[in-house]
Input
Amino acid sequence: MLRFILIILLFILSLVNFFPVPSHYVWYAGIAVPEFPWIFMLASLVLFIWSWYSKKFRMASLIIGAVTFVILSSPIVRAYKVGSHLSADLEKSFGVKDSDMRGFHREKPFSFIGMFTGNGAEKIPFTTYHFAKPAGVDLTLNFTPSALPGVRPCLIVVHGGSWKQGDNSEIAAVNNYYANAGYQVATINYRLAPKFPSPAQQEDLHSAFKWLRQHSTKLKIDTTNFVLMGRSAGASIVLTMAYTGNESGVKGVAAFYGAINMPWSYQNPDNPLIMDSRKVQRDFLGGTPEEVPEKYIAESPLFHITPKTTPTLLAHGCLDAHVWHIQSEMMKKELDKKGVKNYLLTIPWGTHGFEYNLNGPGGQLALYAGERFFYSVTQMKR
Output
């Protein structure tokens, strides 16, 4: 009986590969199951073998076990499918070819073996600096120096957390990866809502730019070659900055599953079991769309796109229950309409935070797309 119950539970768990998670507590499974698939596939295989040598519920266990194994392996199969056209898509969107890449980089969009061998990035120590103290809040950034010598492009990374939580330690392995690839990487903290609503976050990012420019000689930063990357709330922040911030030298922006249309987001809230997204927006923007309409527009990157908008890489999971995938679709449609270079990396099985495991299917695809995008806009010499 225990064996059959475990098979049923694993089958139910496997469904996060095809359906949005129903609550915040299941969200972590929505990341783990598709991005560490081999662990769950192994568990499924063990239960299948156990069922083969058992009598009670044998046939039902074998059928459900086989179906579960197939579902659990689906992110791997689909990662190869996405990867089969990713190189051509990126070349079409940004003009970057695989043959352009030199030095440390991913050679393939996805590799099954890569889930076990890692990405080859060597650990590079970071240094924490204090860059501003607005309203008495001590803001810091973690600076990971490039593995390559000389003056290098600078990647500024902004964390997520619904504008109210989180810090710059988020998915630190990504920062280390891009430092290995030749970027000076600065991951910043910013003031959090509701105590500090918009535009505090934009002000803090401006302060980070100012500090990095002031210390560019010491840190060997090419101040004509900045690129931005953000996740979730951080994606919204970097898009708004890239599109409206008037910071010189910003060559590109990569946004992972960010809200880009604040009025639409308020009218189409999340499942309340996932998050009270309307409260999150009220805390961040200081009221409802009726009370502070100007802030909802100001913090909506979608409304600030022009033909001169910065080249943009979007990445979003189809099963994201925190920020609907349709928001990135809206963004791409408007970028295409204005003739802005862009690409939307869609992860069919992905939820919010799909790239948490850099060696997982979503993580590998995100790194492959990200490094080629950054290379194309910075024209970095390796």
Observations:
- The beta strands are 127-132, 139-144, 152-158, 184-188, 221-231, 250-256, 312-317, 342-347.
- The two ends are 59 Å apart (CA to CA).
- Residues 58-94 form the longest helix (37 residues).
- Residues 171 and 284 are 23 Å apart (CA to CA).
